[in-house]
């Protein structure tokens, strides 16, 4: 059942101000500092009785006592990114020393933190009205994908197509102003099943799910559990298996940097990482690129991005960290609902 207001519309009124490297105000002022030494996470390098973990804990304690200026100076000395609020800089330094200590302690080196070869960032744009009725059916009108190579930590490709809505083919003025998608764009576009078929071909050409492990990543739960789920039902096609699990970057960001849920909106995440939005806000492709920039920054900071949500009975469910690791299955062409 659709909620009274779509997050797709609620997002539009998020704070769009951007912070600076010298100011911890705005989004950043609600971060939760962690002043205790961080416990090291389990790795394949051995158990916690190894002296290296005591060294890591001591280093964490030292980093916790550093001021923001000291953190930035140390990052600069180590040629690390100096942007971000205090908690982000602290996490960046801890991860650097953790990796260095474990590399020194193990002949294999590295942490094996990369679960996937590629991450596909998806951020749909959908039909909307300024005040959506409770039963308003959101139809996807832009299908963007931004492809991240997790080994090079770069955006390596992208896909974008507009989609013709069929239930409510006329876009509202609010939707046009918000997304920049015109009536002419959607009138000249193909319907969703046709676009989804080309998405599948694009993914297959990248050998995702066959030669390379991959996962989808979204900014929240709505893209998959509301927009894609609703669209598949409207188009009378089965929900694609490759999209049944995804990485919700808001959860990953909040858990890794220890911030409140209210501070995991797109603009806040960018601001707290010392970045600014690039492009046109609410353009699906530009939103996806900015989400990808956040994901890359998190990977560089040592975050282990992995699937944390799935679709079950049309609703999003959390995937526990203890769940077996698996990539998304090979994409298959859309199938009609029986």
TrEMBL record:
It is an enzyme of class 3 (hydrolase). It is found in: Cytoplasm; Nucleus, Nucleolus. Pfam families: RNase_T (PF00929), SAP (PF02037). Its EC number is 3.1.13.1. Its main location: cytoplasm. SMART domains: EXOIII, SAP. It catalyses: Exonucleolytic cleavage in the 3'- to 5'-direction to yield nucleoside 5'-phosphates. This is 3'-5' exoribonuclease 1. GO terms for molecular function: exoribonuclease II activity; metal ion binding; RNA binding. Residues 327-338 have a biased composition (Pro residues). One of its GO terms (cellular component) is nucleolus. Keywords: Cytoplasm, Exonuclease, Hydrolase, Magnesium, Metal-binding, Nuclease, Nucleus, Phosphoprotein, RNA-binding, RNA-mediated gene silencing, rRNA processing. It comes from the Eukaryota. Residues 1-50, 314-338 are annotated as: Disordered. InterPro entries: 3-5_Exoribonuclease (IPR051274), ERI-1_3'hExo-like (IPR047201), Ribonucl_H (IPR013520), RNaseH-like_sf (IPR012337), RNaseH_sf (IPR036397), SAP_dom (IPR003034), SAP_dom_sf (IPR036361). Its cofactor is Mg(2+). Residues 63-97 form the SAP domain. GO terms for biological process: regulatory ncRNA-mediated gene silencing; rRNA processing.
